[in-house]
Amino acid sequence: MTSNNVWEPLRIELARWQDAGRKARFWLRDDDAVEPTAALERLLQLTAAKSTPLTLAVIPAATGEALAERLAAQSACLVALHGWSHTNYASANEKKQELGSHRPAAAVLGQLADGFGKLKNLHHERFVPILVPPWNRISSALLPDLPGIGLEALSVYGRASTADGIGLLNTHVDLMDWHGTRGGLPHEQLVAMLVRELEARADGDDEPVGILGHHLVHDETAWSFLSALIDETHDHPAVAWKGSDELIAS
After folding, report:
1. Residue ranges per structural domain of the chain
2. Given phi > 0 = left and psi -120 to 50 = alpha, else beta, which region is 123?
3. Domain 5-233 has CATH 3.20.20.370
C-alpha cells in the first residue's frame, strides 16, 4: 500500500460508525515518564498541536519537580501512577512483574500508596487516580485493596473483562514491536489492529480504544504513526479523543 492507502481500512470502518450515528472514544497512554527529555518534548508538542489528551504513566520513585514543572502548562496532559520503581521481582523463568505475588501484599500496597501521594503532591489536579502496572501485570489478590489507596481505575493491556472492586480503562493498540525489531510496528499492522478493535465494538460495546506509546524508545516509525493517527482522526465525526479523567468519571 502507498502511505495514503495504508489508512483506507480505518477510513472505511469509521465511515460505518458515522453512518450508524456512533462515535468511537479514543484515548492515549504513554508509559515510563520520569523527567523532561527530548523524546518527551516531542510527544508533548505532537499531542498539543491538535489538543489531543495524553495520559503519562509516571514512575514515582524516579521522578521529581522537573517533570512537574514541565507539565504544569500542558492543559491536556494527565499523570497516572506507574507502579513504584518499575523493578522486576519475578524469577528468570517468569514474565516481568513489579506488582506480582513475589513480595508481601502490604509491602507492595505501601509502595503504591507512597507513589500515589508523591504524584498527587507533585502534579495536583493533573494527577488521575489510575494505576498502570509496569509491564501491564498485577496480582489479582491486590485489586480489592487498590480503592483503599485512593485509586479509582486500573489500566492494563487488552479488552476489559472484570477486575475485583475497581474499574478498568485499558489500552489495546501498542505502537511497539517488542518481540521483533523493538521499534514501531508497521503502519499497516497498526491500522489493522485499530480496525479489529472497532469491529469488535460493532455490537454496541462502548469500551474506549486505548493507544499505547513508550516515548523513550519510539523510532521514526512509531512517531510517524502516532502523528498520522492524530491527523486522521482528530476532526473525524465518528471519533472523540478523551482524557482518562473524563473516561473514568463516566
Report:
1. 5-233
2. alpha
3. yes
